[in-house]
Amino acid sequence: MLLRLPTSVSEARECLAEGAIPVGGATLIWAAWQRDGFPEQAVSLREVPEATAVGDGVLGGAVLLHQVDDRVPEMLRQAAKGVGTGAVRRTATVGGNIAGSSLRDLLPAAIALDAWADVLTADGVHRVDLAEVQAKSPLLLALRWREPVRGAYAKVADPAGGEVPTIAAAAVDTEGVLRVAVREGYAVTSGSVGADGGGVEELFAGALSGVSEAGRSLVREQVAKVRGE
């Protein structure tokens, strides 16, 4: 397998146009390649500046999880810190976690931040919302957001019976909008309401109606934190 390492977006586009398969840390696909066979060529964005940026409202898709630091909101740092083991975090990428993983630990925090994504195709760079990222698993060039006023994130530490840990994230933006996202199992649901009183139970009656009582409790805790209650 030929691993191509473009140093610009235009070079990366050429690689995709020529059939190179996107790869980051390969933590999710290496076993499948060993079983099913390796592609003729793969492409990594780890030398592309736009994919390795950190800070000022952007987090590159090729950034390794252990590199997510205080240049991004605390809730994103917590999310990255809670993924797998230290060895995994030194290999796995932001893009792989959000666009390639079935777990997507960073996704609830990103949704609560009202983030969007720059995705790369052979045709160019496209701005898409996170719903499209969930649906299509594109090659994520960068995650972008507007800084929140306050945010909170929690992940259940040790779920019983090897279950997927529940994650809840909440954030209030500069316009007073409260956004909440919760992952239960492999499903991520979210909703938003005005932050000036009430709201959470309204979400449970609507967008988050399928969330379990344990999940609702975790959501309420994060909302209380961002509201200073």
Task: Tell me about this structure.
The structure is a single chain. The protein has nine helices and eleven strands. It has helices at residues 9-17, 30-36, 74-81, 86-89, 94-100, 107-112, 130-136, 200-205, 213-226; strands at residues 2-4, 21-22, 41-43, 58-60, 116-121, 124-129, 139-144, 150-155, 167-172, 177-184, 187-194. The strands form three sheets. A four-stranded antiparallel beta sheet has the order 4-7-5-6. It has a four-stranded antiparallel beta sheet with strand order 8-9-10-11, sandwiched between helices. Strand 10 and strand 11 (187-194) form a beta hairpin. The protein is globular. The mean pLDDT is 91.
Number of domains: 2
CATH class of the largest domain: Alpha Beta
Assign a percent range to the helix content.
Answer: 25-40%
Strand order of the largest sheet: 4-7-5-6
CATH architecture of the largest domain: 2-Layer Sandwich
The SSE string, one letter per element, is EHEHEEHHHHEEHEEEEEHH
CATH topology of the largest domain, which one?
Uridine Diphospho-n-acetylenolpyruvylglucosamine Reductase, domain 3
Q: Work out the number of β strands.
A: 11
Which overall shape is indicated by the principal axes computed on the Cα atoms? globular
Beta content: 15-25%
SSE layout:
Elements: E1 2-4, H1 9-17, E2 21-22, H2 30-36, E3 41-43, E4 58-60, H3 74-81, H4 86-89, H5 94-100, H6 107-112, E5 116-121, E6 124-129, H7 130-136, E7 139-144, E8 150-155, E9 167-172, E10 177-184, E11 187-194, H8 200-205, H9 213-226
Parallel strand pairs: 1-3, 2-3
Antiparallel strand pairs: 4-7, 5-6, 5-7, 8-9, 9-10, 10-11
